[in-house]
Each structure stands twice: as structure tokens, then as C-alpha cells.
Amino acid sequence: MNIPTFFPLLSGIFVFFLGFIVYFRNPKSKINIIFFFVCLSIIIWLFGTFMMFLNRDNDPLAIFWDRFIYVGVVFIPAVFYHFSLVFSEIKNKKLLILGYILSSFFLIISRTKYFVNDLFKYKWGVHTQAKFFHHIFLIYFSIYLILSVINFYRTYRFSKGLKKEQAKYVLIAFLILIPIGSTAYLPAYKISIYPFSYLSGVLFASVIAYAIVRHRLMDIRIVAREVTVYGVSLIVSAVLCLIGLSLIMKYVLPFVPFSSSLIWLMLAISIFGIVIFQFVKEKFSQFANRYLFYPLYSFEKTIENFSKKLSRFIDLNHLVFSTTDTLKEVFKLDNIALILRKLEPPKGQLKLLGIKEESGDTFYLAKNIGFNEEEISLLIKNKFLLYYLEKNKKPLVSDELGFLAEEIKEQSLKNKFLTIKKFMEKMKAGLYLPLLIEDRLVGVFVLGKKVSGDAYSIQDLNLLETISSQIAIAINNAQLYEQMQRFNQILKAKVVEATKELINAYKELKKLDESKTEFLSLASHQLRTPLSTIKGYLSMILEGDYGPISEEVKEAVKTVYQSNERLIGLVNDLLNVTRIEAGKLEYNPTLSDLEKLIKEVTEEMKLPAKKKNLKIEVFVEKLPKFNFDPEKIRQVLINLLDNAIKYTEKGKITLIAKTQNSNVRVEVKDTGIGISRERLNSLFQWFSRGRGVYRLESGGFGLGLYIAKKIIEKAKGKIWAESEGEGKGSTFIFTLPINK
Amino acid sequence: MEKNKKFKILIAEDEEPLLKMYLLKFKNAGFDAYGAKNGEEAFQMAKEIKPDIILLDLIMPMGDGFCILKKIKSENHLKNIPIIVLTNLAQDGDKKEALELGAVDYLVKADFTPAQVIEKIKEILKIKK
Questions:
Q1: A223 half-sphere exposure, CB direction, 13 A CA radius
Q2: Which residue of B lies nearest to A586 if distances are taken between CA atoms?
Q3: Are A729 and A669 in contact (CB under 8 A)?
Q4: pLDDT of the residue at A218
Q5: Chain A: nearest CA to B76, how far in angstroms?
Q6: Is A545 in Cβ contact with B28 (below 8 Å)?
Q7: Distance of CA B32 to CAs A280, B5, B24, B113, Å?
Q8: Which of A98, A220, B9, B43 is the most exposed place for a label (fewest CB within 10 A)?
Q9: How far is A712 from chain B (nearest CA, A)?
Q10: A182-196, A224-238, A372-386, A603-617: lowest mean pLDDT where?
């Protein structure tokens, strides 16, 4: 056994894993199925060769394994051609069917001595010798493989973007496999050659795997990884087993008789191999996941995690941190940045709050991990890039920018793309992910290249597209929230400012109000002084302090006295209203005798009543002493009686006072002009006098009832008026709670 | 109190016609009436004549009514003399303050005739009618 014996085995293992995993990862895909058959035919060739090499000294067995090889090899032209059609999306059924017919024909012929026979043993291996039909087969083989290569080349030549790149690698893979692999035919024609042709499988699998990883060929990126893991693990396990086996053969076998124990030994080695394989696979998988490629993520789980995180934060800073961090983790990135568009404030809102609108770029760098900030700021200024992302709405992958540029015919536009490409390469950006709300670009995620060197897969792009809209909404909400909070703070400051102004204004007003009250108080004092002088002297003249006077003079003096009294009343009313309006009406209840007060007041009022020939009748029940302000209630009684006298031309005035539940009820009833229903409610307002009253009396401001109402309200009582209508008299009633 | 005793009344009033008027009325009513035209004079006279009752205006030159009220109430030999505030200031606050300072009553001049004031004085001095 020499090393080249293992070449076909090694290649076979690689192709085996590649083919099977491509198939099982997506058994429904036509291209994956065909690729599986491509691999299968290669595997049969390689495995058969390995077995043939092992049995180079056993002629019948060597011939048997060579015939086994041709089971796969005869189908190579048909399946390769088939794969080229499917990959290139070309239809050529006739040639394809013909290929399969020819392959089937050669399958049958290959079982006969007219295809291969006799062995050719050379330094590094063994091969059967080609016979007549083999020559014909080679013609068929060459034509179909050339046709296949032409198909790949045409795909490469005429397709664009990613497909072109994929076609390039497929073409390379087949251009390696076909010429190198074909040298395996040389020993059939007695040409001895080192069997490097069998290593073509390894190269073929590697190139295809690279295209899968870098250029999303067949979109089973995962496959390349598994091929790597399984392939490497298997090789390591095999090497370990072989070392074990050779040690056993060298040191143990010479002492053990060739018997069934050898079988047990082989079995033990096999079990050891399986165990070793599991162990190596696990360890290598861990190593590879850490250093060769980023761990696999679950699409649904990642989206779910994102949704959770996005719903958890409303604060912009947290959100920016959380999203960049998560993306960095998921894709195993060193560099990531987030550019956000400044939120445009609703029109007029800033102006309304007196804030100067900020000018400058509408985009800003919200977060940067690992990128050069100067380069990012150049990115923000690249209006074309931002415009393109907004219009295209899809992630822009740096690997694809070159293809994109190639597709564009207009030179200036092409240059713009090439500039972006250069720029992305310079800043080592792998992908730009636009964040959009409706059709408006609100931000861009700049993702670096994966640490593993892997390209962004379709799954990655789908994931990014799915979460980008969620991120955009969350960020927009957070920005709105932030703006709202900012406005809130500004509003608060404004409110504080306004409150200060209000407080100052209030203080000013209060000062003014105090001045006004002081002025009115002083003015009424000044008014009262001459009035009280007049009152005093007149009363003394009437009382005879200045000697006897005639009845005529007495009548005249009395009239002057009454007018003076009215003037005093007016001044008092004015002062009272001022106090009420200033909220300074005081009501000081003391334990007082209402019965006595009523008698005093009615006695006082009898004089003006008598002048109009009116009678005042008083019916007062025995009333308890209770707490009230006698001066204020006196004022109320005077006002009510004064009104009754004023608005009554004939008849009488009746005052009734009695207890009612826990109140005292006082009624002042007259037989005067009465009050219309509409006027009843407005009677107690400022300057409200009954309609038509000006015909009877013009004195007074009409403040009496207003003041009375305010006093009674202060005493927690009630006051109202009742009347059957105009000309039917009126009754004014008030109640006071009996507070003891 | 003796029925025939002449009570001394001190009236502090800066308004001359009013002062004359009250003096006449009180004399006619049988009182020994004295008048003072300002606060300081009122205080001095109170010390000299020791009146039975004082009628005190609030707005006066040379010591307003509140000051004089305080001063009199702080003199041991004067503090028991009843003082009626007789003024044309009708603010509740003023009345409250005067009563707190020790005035026995608070009358608004415009609301009372001199005869009514005498009734009040008699009530306070407990003179039988």
C-alpha cells in the first residue's frame, strides 16, 4: 500500500459529503438533485478506483472493481451535461435524452470484454485496458463534457451579478475536474502516470464549496461548513485509525496466530474509529464555529429575540445599543455602525416654542463600533448612496456592488456605484441595511464583514430585511418619544417662566388691588366726614339742641336729613361692594339676639315708612340666641325693609321671623309693585332693579340685594324672592342656620 | 354710679365742626365734655382730667387713634377708662384691631346721630335713664 492508493478515497470522502449534504439539505430542488448525481458518479469512480488499487495483486477482483468504476463513469457525460443545462437554465431535451441513452448503452457494453479487459499494472496503481467501445465512449465523453463546459462558459459570459460569479466558480471547478480527472484514462492506454488525477475530486469539492460559501451557490452555505466539519473529522479519524492499525500490525500481529481474533481486532478498530470520529467531529465543530465561521442562528428565534428587545426599550440610546449589539452578536461582526436621520419636528412646533431650528446634515452617526468615524461621516455625505438605499429599499451587499456596476451602461452612474464599492471596501463594510418607514429612509445600519469571512447569505438578507422594518419603527417611536420628552422639558421650563410672570403680575395686581381698596376706604372716610357732620347737626336741630323750630322748618330739616341718610347708605354700599369684590367681606358671628335686632331695625325703619303712610307689622316668634354677625344681618334687614318701603306705594310691610328646623326664617313681605317671573332670578345681581322701578324711586345703585345675598351666603344661609307677578307684591326670604 | 354725678367725657376729634357739635350735645345732655384736636393733646388731657369715658377718632394728626389707644391702655392709671372709637373708617379690619387694642365699642360716625352716641355712652357707663 502506498500513499497514492488513498488519493481516490480522500477525494471520494469530500465529494461524498458535498453531494449527500447538498441533496439532503434541499431534496426538492432540481439543481441539488442533479448535483447529487454528479457527485454520485464521481464517488463511484473514486471509490471503485480505491478498491481497485487495494486489489492490484488480485486480477479478477481488480477487473471487477474497474467494471464497478464504469458504472459511475459512463454516466458522467450525461449527468454533467444535465447539470450544465439546469445550472445554465438552458433547455436541450434531445441531446440530454440522447446522452442518457448512450450512457445506458455504454453501461451495458462496459460489462463486456469489448469495453475493457486485461490489467495494466504500473508503479502507482492498476487499470484495465481500453477496448473498442471504450474508444467510442471517450468520443462521447469528450463531446458531452465540452458541451457542458460551453454551457457553463455561456452562463458565465452572459449572466450578471451573483449568477455570473457562481458560474465562474462552477466553470473553474469543472475545468479542474475534467482535464485532471481525465488523465485517469491514460493507464487504460498503457500510459503510466502518477495518479494525481484522483485528487481532482478534492479540488472540485473545494471550489464548489467556496462558491457555496462566498457566492451562495445552490444556497446551501451551511453545506460547505458541514462538508468541512465532516470531511476534516473523517480524515483525522481515519488517520488515527490507520496509525492504530499499523501499530497493531507491526507490534501485535506477528505474535498472534492469524485467526478469528483478527476479525475482532478489525471490529475493535472500527468501533474505535466511530468513537474517535464522534469526538473529533464535536471538537472540530466547536473550533470551526468559533474560528472559521459564525454559529448558526435560528431565523425565527432571532426575529423573536429582536421583537422582544425592540418592544422592551422606548429610550433611543438603549434601543440603539441593543440593536447594534444584537446584530453584532448574530452575525459575529467586529464593525457595526448605525446612522440615523434626524427627526423632523412638526412644522411650526419649534417656532411656537421659540426654539431655533437646527441646521446641517439630516443624518448623524448614532453608534459606531470599529469603523473609522471620518469614513462614516463621508458616507453620511454621500447623497447618492442614501438616495439609492431609500429607492431600492433592500440591503446593499458590498460583494454585489461590482456586479451591479457592471450591469449599468451609463458611465456616470456606473462610476457612482464603483465609488461606493471602493468606499465600502476601504471602510471594510460588508453591507448597508436601509431602515425605512413607508418610503422614507430613517436610518442605515453599516455592517462590517463577518469575522468568519463568510458572505451574507440569502437567509441573512431575509432576516435583515424582516427585522429592519421593525427596527425602523422602534427607532422612529423612540425618536418621537425623545422629541416629546424634549418638548416636555421645554414646555415645563416655559410653564415655570410663565408661572413666574403670572406670580409677578399677580403681585402687581394685588398691590394695585390693595391700593384701590385703600383708596376706596379713604375716599369713603372722606365722604362720610361731611355727611356725618350734616347728619349730626340736623339731628340736633330736630332734637331742639339749637332751640325750638317751627313745624315747617322741622319738616324741611327732616327731608334734608333723609336725603343725607340716603347718601350715607350709598357710600356704605359702595364700600361693601368693594370689599365683596376683593374677597374681603368679613362675617364675624358672635352670640347675638336676632329678636332684639329685628325690633331695633323695624323701629328705625318705621320713620321712613310712616312718611309713605305704610305700616310695618312685625311677627317674631320667640327666637333662641345664636351665632351670627349682628351688624351684617342688620344691614340685610335694613336693605330688605328699605326696598319694601321703596317699592310699595300703599298697603303694608310685614316682617315674619320664626324657627324652621335648624334655621331661622325671616320674611319681608310687601304689597308693592311685585316682580315678574323673568326678573326673579336676576334680582340678586349687580345693579339689578325691578323693571319699572325707576318710575318710583331713582335713588340707590341697586346694590342692596347683591350685598344681602353675599352676606347671607357668607353666613351659610339662603336668600330668595317670591312674587305672584307684577303688581301683586313681593316677599323676600332669608334663612340663617342656628349655630350655637 | 351716682345718679347726679357729672361724668367727664373726653372727645378726641380733629374735625372742628364735629368736635363743636359733639361738645354741645354732650354738654346739653349733662356731661362734662372736653375736646382734643389731635392725638397727642388727647393723651395729655386724658392724663390731666382723667375722664370717665373717651371718644376717640382714628384719623387724626399727631398720633392716630390706634397709637393713642395703645398709649392709654399702657398707662396704669388710664387703662381702665372705657374708650369708644368714633370714626368714619368702616373697614372690618380697623374695627377688629381697635377692639383687640381694648376699645369697648366701635361706632361709625355716619351711622349714629349724637343722640344715639349718648345712648351708647350711657349703656357703657350704666347710667339709668
A1: 31
A2: B92
A3: yes
A4: 67
A5: 30
A6: yes
A7: 134, 10, 10, 19
A8: A98
A9: 17
A10: A224-238
Q: Which residues pair with A657 in a beta bridge?
A: A620, A666
Q: Provide the pLDDT confidence category of residue A697 given band limits of 50, 70 and 90.
A: very low
Regions of chain B where pLDDT drops below 50: 1-2, 129
DSSP string for B43-67: HHHHHHH--SEEEE-SS-SSS-HHH
Mean pLDDT of A208-233: 67
Q: And the C-alpha cell for A202? A: 478534492
Query: Are A653 and A617 a contacting pair, CB within 8 Å?
Result: yes
Distance CA B84, CA A221 (A): 111
Task: Provide ipTM, 2 decimals.
Answer: 0.90
Q: What is the pLDDT of residue A60?
A: 81
Best of A545, A584, A601, A635 to substitute, by most chain B Cβ atoms within 10 angstroms, is A545
Of A524, A536, A539, the CB nearest to B18: A536
Taking CB atoms and an 8 Å cutoff, what residues of chain B touch A575? 90
Residue from the list B59, B88, B92 with its beta carbon closest to the beta carbon of A532: B88
Among the listed residues A51, A82, A55, the one whose alpha carbon sits nearest the alpha carbon of residue A69? A51
From B88's Cα to the closest Cα of chain A, the distance in A is 5
- In a mutagenesis test of the A interface, which of B11, B31, B92 is the best target, namely the one with the most A β-carbons within 10 Å? B92
Q: Do B18 and A533 touch (CB under 8 A)?
A: yes
More confident residue, A285 or A542: A542
- Concatenating the DSSP letter of every residue in A493-531 gives HHHHHHHHHHHHHHHHHHHHHHHHHHHHHHHHHHHHHHH
Contact between chains at B113 and A539 (C-beta distance less than 8 A): yes
Give Cβ neighbours of residue A545 (< 8 Å, ≥ 6 apart): B24, B25, B28
Give the closest of B21, B87, B91 to A536, CB-based. Answer: B21
Residue the block writes with cell 365683596: A580
All residues of chain B having their beta carbon less than 8 Å from the beta carbon of residue A588 are 92, 96
* Dihedral angle computed from the Cα positions of residues A144, A148, A150 and A152, in that order, rounded to the nearest 10 degrees: 180
Whether B114 sits inside 8 A of A539 (CB atoms) is yes
**B100 interfacial to chain A (CB closer than 8 Å):** no
**Mean pLDDT across A566-592:** 83
Which of A129, A127, A125 has the alpha carbon at shortest distance from A195?
A125
C-alpha A136/C-alpha A92 separation (Å) is: 23
Residue A356 has pLDDT above 60, yes or no: no
Q: Which three cell numbers stand for residue B46?
A: 386724658
Whole-angstrom Cα distance, residue B40 to residue B38? 6
Residues of chain A with C-beta less than 8 angstroms from the C-beta of B110? 528, 531-532, 535, 568, 571-572
Average pLDDT over residues A110-139: 82
Amino acid of residue A186: L
Chain A residues with CB under 8 Å of B21 CB are 533, 536-537, 540
Q: Which of the pair, A545 or A230, is modelled with greater confidence?
A: A545
Which of A247, A243, A205 is CA-nearest to residue A226? A205
Residue A545 to residue B25, Cβ atoms within 8 A: yes
pLDDT band at residue A721 using 50, 70 and 90 as cut-offs = very high
Percent of residues, chain A, with pLDDT higher than 70: 88
pLDDT of res. A222? 57
Q: Which residues of A touch B28 (CB under 8 A)?
A: 545
pLDDT band at A720 (very low <50, low <70, confident <90, very high): very high
Count of CA atoms in the C-beta half-sphere (13 A) of A549 = 17
- Average pLDDT of the segment spanning A606-622: 89
Cut 0.80: pTM above it: no
Distance (Å, whole) CA A50 – CA A54: 6
Grid cell, residue B47, equals: 392724663
